[in-house]
Design a protein that fits this description.
Elements lengths: L3 H15 L8 H9 L10 E6 L6 E6 L7 E5 L13 H11 L2 E5 L11 H15 L7 E6 L1 H16 L6 E5 L11 H4 L9 H12 L21 E7 L5 H13 L4 E6 L14 H18 L4
Parallel strand pairs: 3-4, 3-5, 5-6, 6-7, 7-8
Antiparallel strand pairs: 1-2, 2-4
Helix pairs in contact: 3-9, 4-5
């Protein structure tokens, strides 16, 4: 069961987030409010570099102690409508430190101004940039949360289709893999989820898809051909409405011959690691992620 701090956080999220129809809120307001959760200061152990001038936008978070050539390419969540590299700094700063990796956190274009497939195009452009810079794919791991987890999978499917070298591994926090909304947990866990209702996800999907087929594998990677994808680690809470997006993905990865592991936590909020350091479970999951990264690229976290 979740600890006291996580329980209190759940109560706060139920009051502040689940009570509001986020799929109807102005995107600009959502983005501004989400960025407020970012840490106020960059840790002394991390060097932050913003990338804003070129076609690929985002932030580098580099541990000052060195990386031994490790790179993490991270894609934030937010229903493809909000979220940013800034909003997710609490997680990515800590991940850079724990994994001893240079973390590139992508700022992809957001809907509804830039609907599908803009986010996929931006993720692919950023991955090509990393390869062109000489980043070794055998020392590179990709990751993301919620919509960013789905985007991470869409990126790998795109790389496979275009003959690009795949990364050494992928980690996914509560990934949104099925924008057609067919998972049974959307109904089963609607009462227990502390952040979302089914209608919020359906409305958010419409904002992003803009009429596109919700079963297109690059929008809903659950429907893709997963054969040949790298090692994957999936995190999900048993109480969230997107539980089955993770569980079905994990089953399909295994059926496709992919080495996949799934960590199921009890009673935690959707994508709980992004809320580090508010409760200990977030830090524990980041450490598990760092250990996974090390196992993919060699060495110890």
């Amino acid at each position: 069961m979740p600890g006291l701090r996580a329980v209190l956080f759940n109560a706060y999220m139920r009051l502040r987030m689940k009570s509001k129809p986020i799929h109807l809120i102005d995107p600009g307001l959502l983005r501004a409010n989400t960025d407020k959760i970012a840490p106020r200061r960059t840790p002394a152990t991390i060097a932050l570099e913003s990338l804003s001038a070129g076609p690929v936008k985002g932030e580098w978070h580099r541990p000052r102690g060195g990386t031994d050539g490790r790179t993490v390419f991270y894609m934030h969540g937010g229903g493809y409508v909000f979220g940013s590299a800034k909003s997710h700094r609490g997680l990515t700063f800590k991940l850079a430190e724990e994994a001893r990796a240079d973390v590139f956190s992508l700022d992809y274009r957001l809907a509804p101004e830039h609907p599908y497939p803009a986010a996929v195009e931006d993720a692919l452009a950023a991955y090509r940039m990393l390869l062109d810079e000489g980043r070794d794919p055998a020392r590179l791991v990709v990751g993301g949360d919620s919509a960013g987890g789905g985007l991470c999978l869409a990126l790998m499917l795109s790389c496979k289709a275009q003959g690009l070298a795949l990364p050494a591994g992928a980690f996914l926090y509560s990934p949104w893999t099925d924008l057609a909304a067919t998972g049974a947990s959307l109904d089963r866990n609607e009462a227990s989820d502390v952040m979302f209702k089914k209608a919020y996800l359906a409305g958010g999907a419409r904002r992003y898809l803009n009429g596109a087929d919700p079963t297109d594998p690059l929008a809903s990677p659950l429907y893709g051909d997963h054969a040949g994808l790298p090692r994957t680690l999936v995190f999900v809470s048993d109480s969230e409405i997107l539980h089955d997006d993770s569980a079905r993905l994990h089953e399909k990865l295994l059926a496709s011959g992919v080495s996949s592991a799934m960590i199921v936590e009890r009673g935690l909020a959707h994508v709980w690691p992004i809320f580090y350091p508010r409760f200990p479970e977030a830090g524990r999951s980041i450490k598990q992620t760092a250990d996974f990264i090390a196992s993919c690229v060699g060495g110890e976290a």
